[in-house]
Amino acid sequence: MKIIMVVLLTLISTPLWAAAPFTPEQEVRIKALIRETLVANPDILEQSINALQQQANEAQGQQMDQFIEANKQVLFQDPGSPRFGATMPALTLVSFTDYNCPFCKTFDPLLEKIVKAYPQVAVVIKPLPFKGESSMTSARLALTLWQQHPNQFLPFHQRLMAKKGFHDADSIAAAQKKTGVTPVALSEQSLNVLRTNLKLADQLGIEGTPATLIGNQIIPGAISYEQLEEIVKQQLAKAGK
After folding, report:
1. DSSP secondary-structure letter at 181?
2. Is 199 helix (H, G, I), strand (E, B) or coil?
3. Would 206 disulfide with which of 34, 113, 149, 201, CB 3.0-4.6 Å?
4. What is the tens place of the pLDDT at every residue in 4-63?
5. Rounded CA gap, 87 and 34, in Å?
6. What ranges in 41-180 are assigned the alpha helix state H?
7. Cis status, amide bond into 82, omega within 30 of 0
């Protein structure tokens, strides 16, 4: 609706402002002629809306490209953020997730599936503790494990994601026991990583999980594998891979 109003103002008002002054009668007639033209040729309005939408998308894409370029180190190469997949990827997906988020629990296995199907793809995990104290605890524990025993991270991550419903101290301890990970004390670095993740999410306009950065697009929510694969294929094609 906002775009339509902009188009109408552009088509109806701008010519009157830009031209030499008209009499009130001339203004009424000009507006009537414009409306008659739009009614007779509705594709003019559609074309104008499409052009404005394309300009808006291009501007948004440019802003995203600039943000990614300025923050590529912390987005894609932060040593404190867990990752899996290709060691020298053609495409890196950044997954903002929460161990208490039910939609994340359904979407996370699709990321592992896409990496297996496309070995040139990597995934970076950036926990966002949006859902309470156990979100914070489980995220910090997973991050600490990645920092101190990186080979043990993925089984523990998968176990946390496999639980239905919210975690508590008992379920987190059970996940540690089940996966046999080395006991660790929560590190200060894990807290710093979470602070950075929250800042990135705010700058990217992320308000919920899951949210996935693919190329220069933020994909909100738990999309299907078919949708995920299509976006990955498009981005690989753009990268010439």
Report:
1. P
2. helix
3. 201
4. 444 444 544 444 445 567 788 877 877 888 777 777 777 766 666 666 566 555 555 578
5. 59
6. 43-70, 72-76, 102-117, 133-148, 153-162, 169-179
7. no
